[in-house]
From TrEMBL:
Pfam families: PFK
EC number: 2.7.1.11
MF-aspect GO terms: transferase activity
Residues binding ATP, per UniProt: G10, R72, F73, G101, D102, G103, T104
Name recorded for this polypeptide: ATP-dependent 6-phosphofructokinase
Superkingdom of source: Bacteria
Role, per record: Catalyzes the phosphorylation of D-fructose 6-phosphate to fructose 1,6-bisphosphate by ATP, the first committing step of glycolysis.
Cofactor dependency: Mg(2+)
Organism: Populibacterium corticicola
Amino acid sequence: MRIGLLTGGGDCPGLNAAIRAVVKQGLGEYGHQIIGFRNGWKGVVDGDVVQLDRANIRNILPQGGTMLGTARFHPHSAGGMEQVMATLEAERIEALICIGGDGTLNAAQKVAEEGIKIVAIPKTIDNDVYGTDLSIGYHTAVNIATEAIDRIHTTAESHNRVMVVEVMGRHAGWIASAAGIAGGAEVVLTPEEPFDIEKIVKFLRHRHKAHANFSIIVVAEGAAPAKGSAMDFEVQLGQYGEIIAGAIGERVSKEIQERTGFDTRLTVLGHVQRGGTPTPTDRILGSRFGVAAVDAITQGQTNVMTALRNDEIVLVPLEEIAGKLKTVPDELLRVAKALA
Ligand code: F6P
């Protein structure tokens, strides 16, 4: 079979492990041909292809990023659907493996509706893809954010400061909750729970008087103040509806400084969370998803997403997950609060 492969949306560590697994399983186990599209859906529209063989994937396992390149590009909204179909036909693609987050998977669902056989693989450091316990990249991002919080902890204590750490997470606070718990943050702010700055200020005053003269506040970039609370405002989005990095962190840190008088500093972790070498967990997850995707196509199971559930790889119908979001469960949010 001729199988197409693309990585779309924001990059993350572990993508190369999945690419490598698709190529190895495809070529070695079944004798398929694997056709890579460069820069996600844009490469499909532009017909930008590379035939993948063992030489292409040598030494990519520990490397961050994606050797295929990626782009934030949605063919259906960019009017490129006809071109997608034309390229897939010209390249005689019999099935397409799409590695991506919500945007890429929504596009995959649209392409599947046009009759193309699709198997999706979930990736995003935000971990908000519905239907899977884990997405590629999340584990590494939590490691990076935790290490950063550990480092910030020591300087916070030395200087008696409030340190605000903004982490990624547009729609869900997975990184904030996990790294907040692992790094021992005093306050964790997530999109799931709109916050009240007055309550935070009260807590900080009490803590700095009674317990310790420093605090760590982890803020997900998509966190927002509660309607009607003291800091009520509309979160500003960029021209494509994207989050403006540092915006909420800056606002929170300024309000804390002004309301408490405590010396406050902001660190925006930004794309550091998406870079560098993947953890073993992400390498293993990417490898398992890659092998499962090729197996699924070979067995005629398509229009599905590979997913991790209870440590088993399963296939979930694409239409069940497209357009949905996996938010942080109450239990994890409660742990983050209980340990503050
Ligand atoms: O990959 C998801 C994500 O990490 C979001 O949390 C963040 O808002 C966004 O990517 C940033 O993307 P870009 O690389 O386009 O700035």
